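Sequence in, structure out. Go.
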Amino acid sequence: FVTRIDVATILQLLVFTLWHIPAAIALSLENDFVHWLMHGSMLAAGLLFWTAILRMRSDEFGSAILALFVNFKFSLVLGALLAFSSRAFYESYLDRGLPWGVTLLEDQQLAGVLMMVVQSMMYLLALVIRVAVLLRSPERRVATSLMPQCEGLPR
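Output:
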């Protein structure tokens, strides 16, 4: 049930959203168990999502493409929110000491840029691969060759 693409997509988006709420981040920084729970739940949701993507049959490519596109857009929008904000959302990191002399806002903006570029591109890459596989699938070639063609037009 949880490896159905619709369920896995919603679960991944919910887990990802939950752990980006500032209060949830603050709690995870205060409590080791919650911190492990955060990382474990994000890993589990990601594994379920990618397992669902990889197990999809060729007749389910539309669902895979939609799920990848939704996750691509979601990570892009959340990354942009973090990157282009003029306010730091995660003040709980203040007492952690930030490396390289960056401010709290700069750290958040860097994380947003990484999310927009790296995370979004993984979804986009998988999306492009899925579309390429769909376009090269034998079923599509057979269907195309069976379609009536107008005389004089190339197949």
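Check: DSSP finds six helices and no strands in the chain. The helical segments are 5-18, 22-30, 32-55, 61-83, 104-136, 138-146.
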